[in-house]
Amino acid sequence: MLETHIDQTLTAFFAGDRRAAARLMTAVENGGPAAEAVLEALYPKLTGAPRLGVTGPPGVGKSTLVDALARHHRGLDRRVGVVAVDPTSPFTGGAVLGDRVRMNDLATDPGVFIRSMATRGSLGGLARTSKEVVDVLEAFGHDLLIIETVGVGQTEMDIAGTADTTVVVLSPESGDSIQAMKAGLMEAADVLVVNKADRPGADQMVRTLEADLHMRPAADWTPPVIRTVASSGDGLADLTAAVDAHHRYLTGSGDLERRRHARVRVEILAVLRDRLWRRAQRDLTDHVPGWTEKVLAGEATPYTAARAMLAALIDDDPEDDE
Amino acid sequence: MLETHIDQTLTAFFAGDRRAAARLMTAVENGGPAAEAVLEALYPKLTGAPRLGVTGPPGVGKSTLVDALARHHRGLDRRVGVVAVDPTSPFTGGAVLGDRVRMNDLATDPGVFIRSMATRGSLGGLARTSKEVVDVLEAFGHDLLIIETVGVGQTEMDIAGTADTTVVVLSPESGDSIQAMKAGLMEAADVLVVNKADRPGADQMVRTLEADLHMRPAADWTPPVIRTVASSGDGLADLTAAVDAHHRYLTGSGDLERRRHARVRVEILAVLRDRLWRRAQRDLTDHVPGWTEKVLAGEATPYTAARAMLAALIDDDPEDDE
Questions:
Q1: What whole-number percentage of chain B has pLDDT above 90?
Q2: Alpha-carbon distance A65 to B188, whole Å?
Q3: Is A88 in the same domain as A142?
Q4: How far does the CA of residue B109 sit from the closest CA of chain A (Å)?
Q5: Does the pLDDT at position A126 exceed 60?
Q6: Which of B278, B293, B301 is the best mutation test for A, with the most CBs of A within 10 A?
Q7: Which residues contact A29 (CB under 8 A, 6 or more apart)?
Q8: What distance in Å separates residue B266's CA from the closest CA in chain A?
Q9: Please, which pLDDT band fits residue A180 given cuts at 50, 70 and 90?
Q10: Full DSSP string of A40-104
Q11: Whether the Cβ atoms of residue B82 and residue B113 lie closer than 8 Å to each other
C-alpha cells in the first residue's frame, strides 16, 4: 500500500468506514513498512477494550458460541470485533472460512466485525499478526474483542495469550477432556465451557473438570465451569458473568497491568526485529549472491559469510558476539 | 554447551561416538552460539549425501515405510540417518515419539541413527532446525538421510523442501487423495506412494492418482506412483529405484545444483538473521525496560521506541528504511 493510500484509508477508517478497516487489516496481515505505518497511526487510538480468547478442539461448537456471544453483547449495545484464526491443517478437518458464512444476521450488523484468518499449517508469525489485526478492530472502536482459535497447540496458546481472558470450550461428545488436560489446556483456561450441555455426558464432563480443577494447587483464581448451549443461547449470560468476574479479578490483582506490560515489551522487540531485518536486507542483499558462490566454491561457510556481512552492517564492533 | 565441551564432543563425534552425535543434535536444536559453533565445525564434513523427504497424512504408515526403507538400505550396506518430525497437534492424533520405540532391530543397528523431533503445534523455526539436525547426521557419515514429517502444511513442505526428493505417502483407506490434491501435496511430490497396497481400494487410488498426474502440465519429471506394503517390505525395491531415478534426473537436469545453490543462500540469510538478532539483544536489552515504561506512559509507541533503539545500534544512518 502506498503512503498516500494509507493516509486516505486511515482517514476513512477513523470516519467509521468498514471497507477501510478491512483494507487496513489486510495491510497489517501483509506485514512490512505499510503494516508498521498503519499500526503506528492506530496506536494512540487503542482503547484497552477487553480481549477474550476462545479456544478448544475442533467440533465443540466454538464458532456457534462466539456468534452467540457476539449477539449477547450486541443485545447489551456493545460493539464486537471477532478475529477467527483457523490454522487447521488440511488433514485435521476444520472449516477454514466456510463456517463464518452462516452468520447472516451478524454479517449485516454494523456493530459487529468478523475477520477470518485462515492459514494452511504455516503458523509462524500468525500469533503476532492476529494480535495486530485485533489492534485494528480495537482502534475501530469495538467494545469487546474476541479471538477464536481452532485446536490447541503452542501457537494457538500464543494467540490466546494476547487475550485478557481465555475461554476453553469442550463438548461432552468430543471426549476431548482428557486430551485437553494432556495438552496443558486446563492450565491455560481462565473460564471453562462445556458447550452442547444438553447432550448426554455433559453432567459427567462438568464433574470431571471440576474434580480436576480441585486437584490443582490453590490459586487466587479458580476457573469456573460453565454449561452452554450455544445454538439456543442457554448459558450465555452465565458465561458473560464469568468473563466479567475474571476481568475484575485481573484488574484488582494487578495482573492486567502486568500482562499489558509484558505485551508492550514483546511488541517493542517484535517491531525492532522486523525493522532490523528489513534494514539488513536493504543493505546486504547485494552481497548475498557473491557469498553464496564463495560458499559453494568451498572458500567460505555460511557462518564466515554471515559474520563478514554483519561486520559490514555494524562496523563499530566487528567482533564475534559469543 | 561450553566451548571446551563442544570441542570434546566434536572430537568424540568425528571418532564415531553416537552419544556425541546425540549431544550435538541437542545443541543444534537449542540454537544460539553453541548451535552455530557446532554447525560451523561440521560444515566442511558435509558429504552431499542424498536427502529423502517422506511426508503424508497421519495413519498412512509413514513410520513403518521409513523403517522398511532404512532396513532396505541397510541390506545394501548403506548407513541411514532418520529425522522424524512430528509437529502434530494434540487433537489430531499422531504418535509423538511413541512410534519410534517399536523399531527394536533398527535401534540396535550402529548403521542407523533415528532422531525424533516432536513439537506441540509450535512450528516456527522447526523447518530450519530439522535441516540442521540432518546436517549433523550427514556429517556423521550417513549415506542416506530421511526426513519424515507428519501432516502436510506449509511448514512440513518447508521441511520436505530441504530434501532432494520428496516422497508423498497415501493409503487406500485414508480417503486422503482428494484432500492431498487440495493441499497442494501433489505438486510437492517427486514420487507418490500408495502404501497398504494390499488393502481394498488400492487399485482405484493408484488409477485416480495417475489420472490426476496426467492432467498436470507436461514436465520433465512425472512422479511415478509406487505401491508398497511397508509391513511386509513389498514394493521397497520399486520405491528405491524410483528415488534413485529421480536423483539421476535432478543431477542430469542441473536441478540438484540449483536446489543446493538456493539452500546455501537460505542458510547464509538464516545465520545472518540469528546473529543480527543476538547482537541486537546483547546491545539493546538494557534499553527495553525504559522504553516499555515510556510506551505505557504514553510518551512513545513501540514504533518510535524500536526506531530509536535501531538508530543506537546502527548509528551511521539513523534514517527510516521505508
A1: 43
A2: 37
A3: yes
A4: 33
A5: yes
A6: B301
A7: A35, A117, A129, A133
A8: 9
A9: low
A10: HHHGGG-----EEEEEE-TTS-HHHHHHHHHHHHHHTT--EEEEEEE---TTS---TTGGGGG-H
A11: yes
Task: Output the 3-class SS for A160-229.
Answer: HCCCCEEEEEECHHHCCHHHHHHCCHHHHCCEEEECCCCCCCHHHHHHHHHHHHHHCCCCCCCCCEEECE
B277 neighbourhood in chain A, CB within 8 Å: 273, 276
In a domain, A320, yes or no: no
Nearest residue on chain B to A32, alpha-carbon basis: B322
Based on the fold, state whether residues A268 and A159 are members of the same structural domain: no
Q: Which residue has the cell 485494528?
A: A136
State the nearest Cα–Cα gap between A168 and chain B, in angstroms: 14
Q: Do the Cβ atoms of B271 and A303 come within 8 Å? A: yes
Query: Who among B40, B124, B306 is closest to A272 (CB)?
Result: B306
Q: Which chain B residue is nearest to residue A289, measuring alpha carbons? A: B265
Pairing of strands A51-56, A165-170: parallel
In a domain, B226, yes or no: yes
Give yes or no: residues A186 and A90 share one domain: yes
Q: Is A275 close to B89, i.e. CB distance below 8 A?
A: no
CA A27 vs CA A6, A20, A216: distances in Å: 9, 10, 43
Distance CA B263, CA B284 (A): 31
Disruptive mutation site among A130, A171, A276 for chain B (greatest number of B CBs within 10 Å): A276
Domain tally, chain A: 3
d(CA B63, CA B171): 13
Whether B124 and A123 lie within 8 Å, measured CB to CB:
yes
- The pLDDT-based confidence of B94 (bands split at 50, 70, 90) is very low
Query: How buried is A108 (Cβ within 10 angstroms: 0-12 exposed, 13-18 middle, 19+ buried)?
Result: exposed
A5: which chain B residues are within 8 Å (Cβ-Cβ)? none
Q: ipTM value of the model?
A: 0.73
For A40, which residue in chain B has the nearest alpha carbon?
B303
Q: Give yes or no: residues A110 and A162 share one domain.
A: yes
Distance from CA of A75 to the nearest CA of B (A): 33
Q: What digits encode the pLDDT tens for the residues B38-73? A: 999 999 899 989 999 998 877 788 889 999 999 999
Please tell me whether residues A75 and A163 are part of one structural domain. Answer: yes
Report the alpha-carbon distance of residue A299 to residue B78 in Å, rounded. 30
Q: Which three cell numbers stand for residue B200?
A: 481394498
What is the residue range of A29's domain?
1-44
Asked if the Cβ–Cβ distance from B153 to A279 is below 8 Å, we say no
- The Cβ of residue B15 has, within 10 Å, a number of other Cβ atoms equal to 8
Q: Is residue A322 included in any domain, yes or no? A: no
Whether the CB-CB separation of B41 and B35 falls below 8 Å is answered with no
- Residue A259 is assigned to a structural domain of this protein: no
Are the beta carbons of B279 and A314 separated by less than 8 Å? yes
CB contact under 8 A, A89 and B153: yes
Maximum Cα–Cα distance across chain A: 70
The letter for the amino acid at B142 is H
